[in-house]
């Protein structure tokens, strides 16, 4: 048995390891419980809606109650959002920018503040569902945020497993189907969504139309559902928390003190009288600051439990290393970098900055699509943007990390020295 297996057995983690399987439908199951995939058959990489709901529920509970989970989510959210995303239109007339500002700063949309909630939700659940409510009189767009656990089904393009067409959501016995936003290449939005685009059928071709945005992360090709950033580490974080609480309980027991009287020559019947409060011979335990009297045949002693001290720090460190690896965040970002110096901290920070930049790129593209949809609705339902030639825009994203000018200058100095030496 390996050292890891022995440690897992000691702390009851063999059950956690045994339960670490992917609950997708692979095709079948042997008599010994091993799953198998049928040759030539499909592979459903998605988990069941019930399992997805359980993951999201546990992630949200852990975010508010587990300090490791809370720190991981907040690090990613705060670094990715920073000072906030801002839309900037290319049009010099200011008409497009006015439309974007009206949408962005709408009291209900309030994206200056809600963008951090969007990023946090994406980290916790792996999905973000935004329902779009378009006013057909003035083309204004209002946002409604839906709970991803209410998704019952995502209908994909049969010719493209990566393109969602509609999202089916339901609660209290009723199902609602929403068209996912995409470019209306054939001008069929009036047929698919007559209640919204029925009166403007000729104006939707080539523009973005739909009723919902679906943003998903942490999924492979062929998967419909996104997965929480916390899925690989949820069980480990919970077990570290359990170990720490068990250590605190043990410390409380070790610090407990018990007092007892030793009375020379006392029979069991006499001891019983000494213990009973209603007995005239009852001996009361002396209180703090009080004065007691005894003879040479009575002795008061104090003792504590001998539980056998054991150091859990090594086991906790081992589990924390798994959490650091699973989250992709180095340990000194958690305030525990006793063995980390400035040079190693800079090197360890590079991978996590790449990870944060990748998540920021996803959110930037999401806000780009959202703003393009807003502009297209104005073009479809109103003439406010008539005469505008450039409908392009750019999402201004915050810088994730301040550049280390000293490091950059030293690197440049080294390169210059090498070139000078080569010429000589």
Low-confidence stretches: 14-21, 25-31, 36-42
Largest sheet: 3 strands, antiparallel
Total E-strand runs: 14
Strand content: 15-25%
Number of helices: 13
Give the SSE string.
HHEEHHEHHEEEEEEHHEEHEHEHHEH
Cα shape? elongated
Termini, distance in Å?
62 Å
User: Strand arrangement, largest sheet?
Assistant: 5-4-11
**Structural class by helix and strand composition:** alpha+beta
Work out the radius of gyration.
Answer: 32 Å
Helix fraction?
A: 40-55%
The chain-level mean pLDDT equals 80
Question: Any overview of this molecule?
Answer:
- The chain has 424 residues and is of the alpha+beta class.
- It has 13 helices and 14 strands.
- It has helices at 3-10, 14-18, 49-65, 67-81, 95-104, 111-125, 189-192, 194-197, 234-254, 268-275, 313-327, 342-381, 405-423, and strands at residues 27-29, 35-37, 86-89, 127-134, 141-146, 151-157, 160-171, 174-179, 182-183, 208-209, 212-216, 258-263, 298-303, 393-396.
- Strands 5-4-11 form a three-stranded antiparallel β-sheet.
- The protein is elongated and about 110 Å long.
- Residues 14-21, 25-31 and 36-42 have low confidence and may be disordered.
Please outline what is shown here.
The chain has 424 residues and is α+β, with helices and mostly antiparallel strands.
């Amino acid at each position: 048995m390996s050292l890891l297996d022995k440690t897992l057995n000691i702390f009851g983690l063999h059950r956690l390891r045994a339960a670490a399987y992917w609950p997708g439908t692979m095709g079948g199951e042997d008599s010994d419980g091993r799953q198998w995939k049928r040759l030539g058959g499909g592979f459903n990489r998605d988990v069941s809606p019930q399992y997805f709901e359980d993951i999201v529920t546990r992630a949200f509970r852990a975010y508010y109650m587990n300090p490791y989970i809370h720190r991981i989510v907040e690090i990613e959210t705060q670094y990715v959002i920073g000072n906030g995303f801002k839309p900037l239109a290319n049009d010099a007339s200011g008409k497009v920018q006015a439309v974007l500002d009206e949408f962005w700063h709408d009291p209900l949309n309030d994206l200056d503040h809600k963008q951090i909630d969007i990023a946090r939700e994406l980290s916790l659940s792996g999905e973000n569902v935004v329902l779009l409510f378009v006013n057909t009189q003035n083309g204004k767009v209002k946002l409604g945020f839906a709970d991803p656990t209410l998704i019952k089904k995502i209908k994909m393009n049969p010719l493209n497993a990566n393109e969602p067409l509609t999202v089916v959501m339901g609660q209290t016995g009723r199902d609602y189907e929403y068209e996912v936003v995409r470019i209306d290449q054939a001008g069929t939005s009036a047929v698919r969504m007559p209640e919204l685009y029925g009166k403007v059928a000729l104006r939707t071709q080539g523009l973005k139309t739909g009723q919902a945005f679906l943003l998903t992360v942490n999924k492979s090709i062929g998967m419909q559902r996104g997965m929480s950033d916390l899925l690989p580490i949820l069980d480990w974080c919970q077990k570290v928390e359990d170990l720490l609480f068990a250590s605190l309980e043990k410390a409380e027991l070790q610090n407990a003190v018990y007092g007892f009287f030793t009375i020379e020559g006392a029979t069991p019947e006499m001891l019983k009288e000494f213990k009973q409060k209603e007995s005239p011979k009852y001996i009361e335990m002396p209180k703090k600051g009080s004065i007691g009297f005894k003879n040479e045949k009575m002795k008061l002693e104090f003792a504590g439990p001998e539980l056998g001290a054991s150091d859990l720090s090594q086991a906790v460190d081992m589990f924390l290393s798994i959490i650091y690896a699973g989250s992709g965040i180095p340990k000194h970002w958690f305030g525990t970098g006793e063995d980390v110096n400035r040079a190693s901290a800079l090197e360890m920070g590079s991978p996590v900055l790449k990870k944060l930049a990748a998540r920021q790129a996803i959110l930037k593209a999401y806000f780009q699509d959202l703003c393009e949809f807003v502009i297209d609705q104005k073009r479809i339902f109103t003439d406010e943007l008539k005469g505008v030639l450039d409908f392009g825009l750019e999402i201004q994203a915050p810088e994730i990390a301040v550049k280390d000018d000293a490091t950059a200058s030293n690197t440049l100095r080294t390169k210059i020295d090498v070139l000078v030496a080569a010429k000589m």
